[in-house]
Amino acid sequence: MSARASGEYTRPDVKRRLLVIGTGGTIASEPSSNGYTPLRNDHFYRRIRQHPLLSDPSGTSTPTLFSSPVLPVAVGVNTRYPELITPPLGDNEERVSYEILDLDKQMDSSEMTPSEWNIIAGLVEENWTDYDGFIILSGTDTLAYTSSILSFLFTNIGKPILVTGAQIPLSQPRSDGWANLLDSIYVAGVMNFAGIGVVFHHQVFQGNRATKTSPNHFAAFQSPCVPPLVNLNVKITLGGSITPRSSTLPPRLINLVTSPTVLSCSIHPGITGALLSAQIEAVPTCKAVILSAYGSGNLPISEENGALAALEAAVKRDILVVVISQCAIPNVYPLYTQGRTLLSKGVLPGHDLTHEAAFAKLLWLVSRKDLSFRQRQELFEIPIAGEMAA
Ligand code: ASN
EC number(s) per UniProt (predicted)? Predict the structure, then answer.
């Protein structure tokens, strides 16, 4: 049972209670002889507990020395660490309480799969009423995939689910993870913000519009087609309207399919229909294909190339085929003969979807057992969670 559910909280100045779900990633990594790796131990919690901006010793009964004992609680296979309380964060001296729940499997985010998303989403759903918001700590490599899938699983929610991480581990000097975590706690705990966001380098991006743009810059994420939702500078400014908190409950959670269903193919000079068919045929469980095509959605269409015929054959086998743009600022619209011909074969336009959002939307659609192929096609063309322009 969480501290909140067991009624352990007493402080009147604690504005909100958050659950921080740790999955590993750089933010939680330690150096090893084989490079940075997230370990399954309490070092990450201890580092946070001793940081004066993230944990106020007067706020909890927990001693703050790095060496003092920690009494984690096993929650199934996962580990929940004792509650931490921030120093006053808001203009009205509000404090935020949070608990870190570390997943059993701490991983570099390149190991992330739909199975882990099912676990994360299940934990959020299970703890929905006990907490005022959720922060998912992830590696940055697949962070935008995680935030994108959460946006489809948790549409129109009344609480925040923020995803954050770091480029340098908390265990190392100059870590950006401190600021990313503090900003996340501030947005989820003090601001009136609901929905799925990526918090990175003092900005909040819409979860299904964000993409990782650099493995080096602290400003590692952008949302190329829409402005950031929040800029956390000296002054906090909003890039548009943000969804306020409400008592809206999350939709009934669906279980994501874990067999390989969504295939991603990149168009490149020299691609042929044979190369595309070989990839599709190699995945018997394939239910959707993302084509990352040139520019506004172009690819070679000559008969001898065979790409169009390969894609048409896939659509006829009830495989959703969608086209997105390889450009850094994506936008698919049928301007050229190539793009128009492609769409005339039943391939669906991905408009300004990022690859991450396209992947998440397709995974969500093929996981919806209640939908026919036709209904999936129709829903793909409609924005479900603000993931693309109408
Ligand atoms: N490889 C790391 C990860 O995605 C990168 C990072 O978190 N900065 O887990």
Answer: 3.5.1.1
- Is the dihedral angle over the CA atoms 321, 327, 333, 335 positive or is it negative? negative
Q: Is the pLDDT of residue 63 over 90?
A: no
Who wins on pLDDT, 258 or 68? Answer: 258
26 catalytic per annotation: yes
Mutual angle of helices 307-316 and 337-344, in 10-degree steps: 30
Dmax of the chain from CA atoms?
74
How far apart are the C-alpha atoms of 146 and 140, rounded to whole Å? 10
Per-residue pLDDT at 150 exceeds 70: yes
Q: With helix as H, strand as E and coil as C, how does 48-72 read?
A: HHCCCCCCCHHHCCCCCCCCCCCCC
Q: Which residue lies with its CA nearest to atom 3 of ligand 1?
A: 139
- Superfamily per CATH, domain 3-238: L-asparaginase, N-terminal domain (3.40.50.1170)
Q: Is 194 left (phi over 0), alpha (psi -120 to 50) or beta?
A: beta
pLDDT band at 334 (very low <50, low <70, confident <90, very high): confident
- Which regions of the chain carry the CATH code 3.40.50.40? 262-380
Tell me which of 245 and 5 has the higher pLDDT: 245
Query: How many percent of the chain have pLDDT more than 70?
Result: 95
In the predicted model, what is the mean pLDDT of the chain? Answer: 94
Pocket test for ligand 1, best of 27, 37, 107, 109 (most atoms within 8 A of CB): 109
Residues of the chain with CATH 3.40.50.1170: 3-238
The token duo for 178 is 């401190």
For domain 262-380, give the fold: Rossmann fold (3.40.50)
269-281 pLDDT, tens digit per residue, is 999 999 999 999 9
Residues facing 323 on adjacent strands: 291, 349
